[in-house]
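Hey L., structure's done. Input below.
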Amino acid sequence: MNESRLFSGLACEGELMSDAADFSMVVGSALPATFTFLYQRLGAALSRWRSGRTAEPEAEPEVPAELVGDLELPLRVDSGRLEARLPVLEALALGMAQYERAPERITIEDAVLMQTLGQVREALEDIYGQRFTFQGETREQTGPISEQHYDTVAGEVTVMEAQEAIRGSVTSTIRAKRVEAGGKVVGMRAPIIDGRS
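Output:
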């Protein structure tokens, strides 16, 4: 069941999985870089949507030292997931713009900012298929994630079939209510997919 929930003044579809509480663990000195990285990724995703270039990989971003783990580059947007979140993302970008113009306001004590960063990260991780973890947090490190949900699997479902790369922290989740006779669910093939910590 897909229910609409109200969170921090914004309507979000589906189950809410914000990591806002985790941002209280970000080392204070890492917060400006954390904000900048997330704000730039949000801006880049929205800009690519407006220009109709979501199928192209994003130009290589400046990756801050405060990002913990291995970011898989180039970053690629899932245009369907981006479109589904578009109104919320545009509202979040407007809310973050005030902090971008006044960086001295970026502090751990700002509960609204922490909540906003949590919502932005949750959305960006879904859109880019990667986890973004910052210095001081106690969550899995930055790296590719894949989450697939199926009612019925009749053929083959493969998640994260690498063939020469992926490395870093990798998470793959497949949920199927039913796998029919002859159906096959494969999580992570190889060669390589390393998942180093």
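The longest helix spans residues 79-101. The longest strand covers residues 143-153.

-- N.
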